[in-house]
Amino acid sequence: MIRRAAAAAVALSLIVVLAAGCAARPDPALPGEPALPGNSGTPPVAERPASRRDTRALRRLRADLTEVFGAPIMARGVWGVVVRSLDSGESIFELNAGKLMMPASNMKIVTLATAAEILGWDHRFTTTLETAAPIVDGVLRGDLFVRGTGDPTINSREGRAPSVLFDWTTALRAAGIREIDGRIIGDDQAFDDDGLGAGWAWDYLQYGYAAPSGALQFNEDIAQLRVSPGARVGDPAILELPSGAGFTFVNRVITGAEASSVTIDYRRHLYQPELEVTGSIPVKADSAIRSVAVVNPTRYFAQSLKEALIGTGINVHGEAVDNDDVAGALAGASVARRVLASTDSPTLREMGTVLMKVSQNLYAETFVKAMGAAGGEVGTTSGGRSAMLRTLTSWGIPEDAYVVADGSGLSRYNYVSAEMITAVLERMYRDPRHRDAFLKTLPIAGKDGTVASRMRGSLAEGNAVAKTGSIANVRSLSGYVRTRDGEMLVFAILANDFAIPAATVTWIADLAVETLAAYPAGGQSR
Predict the structure, then answer these.
(1) Looking at residues 149-154, what average pLDDT do you find?
(2) Is the pLDDT score of 13 beyond 50?
(3) Percent of the chain surpassing pLDDT 90
(4) In the predicted model, is pLDDT for residue 25 greater than 60?
(5) Cβ neighbours of residue 194 under 8 Å, at least 6 residues apart?
(6) Chain centroid to CA 160: how far?
(7) 334: number of CA atoms within 13 Å, CB side?
(8) pLDDT tier at 332 (50, 70, 90 boundaries)?
(9) How far is CA 195 from CA 214, 269, 364, 441, in A?
(10) CA-CA distance, 437 to 434, in Å (whole number)?
(11) For the segment 335-360, what is each residue's pLDDT rounded down to a tens digit?
């Protein structure tokens, strides 16, 4: 009750402010400059005449933001906030601007920005089917290799995985292959095998959002766990998981009464590939589906390919294996492999849109390793971090303003400051090589991505574009918003160390962005 009352008090104190801002003048026409949602007609920033700021309006805005971020309900938590004008370069508001804080998925801003600089927006990942074996009477007399360089997009999004598998099957048939008298071997040597990030918590490694990365990645390294009721109440439930996922089951799910609830949870045993599944599912109920992070991405890819080939009539006699499992046996073979089929991923600009709008962790970790591999080395997270550091330093961002542990923000070892995030966002905005592509990746308030249901009904809807972030006791929201007068603002809002409901923290951050969108920016100095 106290928490609700405190939140209500903050809302009440700002309703008048927002109403006044919204009523101050009719919505201006905002033509042209650049590709942010809602723009429709002012001249580009460089051509706009400088205007003198209404200092009373600025003081009022700063007072409003001070009230928002000073809400007593967040007294035990910490805010880090920076708001800056991209038109004038003026600092609009700061609170703990240089304080190091955990960013959660705001880390993806840094990852995508540096990946765009190092790899380029047109970067693609290539995956090939290769063999050194002869084809005799329609039979491949040896192993089929699938060699990856990190493509994270061979998944169900827009039907890409079925399309790739169809193309590969067609290519094998065109090469005269109707049967494979050997194994499917996953060649993942482009990246190292450290799929999990430093600082990831052991108690969520089983969930799809913590899937390990690798040079071969199928269905975002997620397998579907199917839980079906038994025949009678009290019977063990029936568990199914693709064999390539790599788990054995510890089944602790029972069949419940017909009107009972579905209560399914699962955890991964750390020292062996066991998945313990607990809970209850009602008798006669439809199967419950849960996403599980696989154990070995390479083996999962090879097994999925094998099953796809068999499903289209190309029989495979051998096992699906990770190259590392058979490296000793292959060491003596020196015959060069020839390429039977090849596919390229979408471009970084397309993958970046999935990364940011969906907040896809696996894509982020892949980009870090790809940055590490850009110099011709094996792709590692440490190599990627070094490449990111060099880029950030070249942008004038001091090394003590951040700590990079992973690319996704899932790690609690990551630290950034609001000042640093704002600097990266400003860099992307001011660089003509990056601006349009980067802006298009960001979720649009009230419209799509992770902010599709946020800031609706406000002047931020369809206007603000921002990356969210969310891990335990951490929330973040950073991006761009245009004021009522068409001034472009960049902002970074980080919240750490709170014990209040996360929804309240999210609401406060949204309210701050709505306040910026309602701000009357121009006018005569007073």
Answers:
(1) 98
(2) no
(3) 86
(4) no
(5) 380, 381
(6) 18
(7) 1
(8) low
(9) 6, 17, 12, 25
(10) 6
(11) 799 999 999 999 999 999 999 999 99
**Residue labelled with tokens 């008298």:** 181
Copy the structure tokens of residue 284: 């006669």
Q: How far is CA 55 from the centre of its chain?
A: 39
Q: Is 41 exposed, middle or buried (0-12, 13-18, 19+ CB in 10 A)?
A: exposed
Q: For 414-435, what is each residue's pLDDT tens digit? A: 999 999 999 999 999 999 999 9
Tokens 């471009």 belong to which residue? 347
DSSP 332: T
SS3 state of residue 439:
helix
CB-based contacts of 360: which residues, under 8 Å, 6+ apart? 152, 220, 354
Q: How many CA atoms lie within 13 A of 136 on its CB side?
A: 7
Question: What does the mean pLDDT of the chain come to?
Answer: 90
Q: What CA–CA distances, in Å, run from 492 to 12, 74, 312, 399, 422?
A: 24, 18, 51, 19, 6
pTM listed for this prediction: 0.89
What would the two tokens of residue 227 be? 């839980």
Which residues, 6+ apart, have CB-to-CB distance to 274 below 8 Å?
Answer: 247, 248, 249, 250, 268
- SS3 for 195-249, per residue? CCCCCCCHHHCCEHHHCCCCCCCCHHHEEEEEEECCCCCCCECEEECCHHHCCEE
